[in-house]
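Deliverable D2.4 — example input (structure tokens):
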């Protein structure tokens, strides 16, 4: 505990000294306000490890590709089949490529949009273990089936439908980037902070996906592509850019509740109509 407190205190001193070295306010260009919270980042990282423990098995990957195909069809219906004129589609295709979805499967999903059944997008609000909040994105051709399936999974695994969970999230642009540089050295937190400021991002957090450490640069919805371009120009290896629901109020969970939440989210993600599940969970043990 003492070492952790000392580490955070020293980090605060470094940030303070760097601020003292900045030029006077009237000589500085406007920058996006950065909200960096090391305790939240640490908790988020541990939670990422817990909820991704299942790993990229073949069956899970197949379900992921099916969900990407659903997202592609939704994007095509909203903005057309040409990604050059449909930014939503371009973002989804980019995410597909980042997960190694075959090019033929991507093209088939785009071409098959007209032949697919009419689908409805819904966003369900739910409460999870330990008082956590969940947002569940659904794309379905049968809303009654989807609602009943999700309600059943929640009820059997420590969750429930609820109103108000949406207030714990904000719609944001998220640029996902490698947490290491071209020489495979981990990017220090202070350097990530500097990169976020330079690129115009609001926040930067660490996360993990399939045992790969990553950085999330969070920004305003309208700035997601300019932030990504700026990060690339600064030498950051960006992976994808998308619009997501980012938690603004966190729920600290014990290890037991983390495991329960991980199981619940895994089951929800396995549901055929669920596109994605967002949570506001962090590990309580990282805060103690």
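Example output (designed residues):
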């Amino acid at each position: 505990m003492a070492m952790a407190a000392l580490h955070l205190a020293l980090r605060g001193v470094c940030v303070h000294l760097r601020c003292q070295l900045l030029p006077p306010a009237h000589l500085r260009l406007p920058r996006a306000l950065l909200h960096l919270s090391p305790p939240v980042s640490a908790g988020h990282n541990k939670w990422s490890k817990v909820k991704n423990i299942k790993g990229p098995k073949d069956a899970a990957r197949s379900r992921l590709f099916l969900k990407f195909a659903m997202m592609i069809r939704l994007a095509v219906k909203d903005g057309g089949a040409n990604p050059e004129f449909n930014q939503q589609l371009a973002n989804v295709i980019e995410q597909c490529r980042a997960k190694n979805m075959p090019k033929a499967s991507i093209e088939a999903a785009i071409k098959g949009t007209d032949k697919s059944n009419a689908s409805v997008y819904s966003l369900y609000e739910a409460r999870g273990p330990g008082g956590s909040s969940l947002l569940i994105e659904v794309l379905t051709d049968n809303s009654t089936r989807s609602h009943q399936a999700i309600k059943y999974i929640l009820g059997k695994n420590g969750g429930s439908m609820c109103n108000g969970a949406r207030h714990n999230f904000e719609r944001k642009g998220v640029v996902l980037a490698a947490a290491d540089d071209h020489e495979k050295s981990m990017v220090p937190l202070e350097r990530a902070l500097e990169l976020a400021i330079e690129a115009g991002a609001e926040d930067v957090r660490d996360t993990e996906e399939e045992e790969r450490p990553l950085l999330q640069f969070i920004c305003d919805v309208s700035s997601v592509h300019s932030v990504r371009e700026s990060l690339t120009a600064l030498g950051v290896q960006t992976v994808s850019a998308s619009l997501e629901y980012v938690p603004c109020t966190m729920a600290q969970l014990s290890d037991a509740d983390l495991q329960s939440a991980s199981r619940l989210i895994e089951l929800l993600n396995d549901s055929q109509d669920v596109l994605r599940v967002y949570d506001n969970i962090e590990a309580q043990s990282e805060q103690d």
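The two ends are 8 Å apart (CA to CA).
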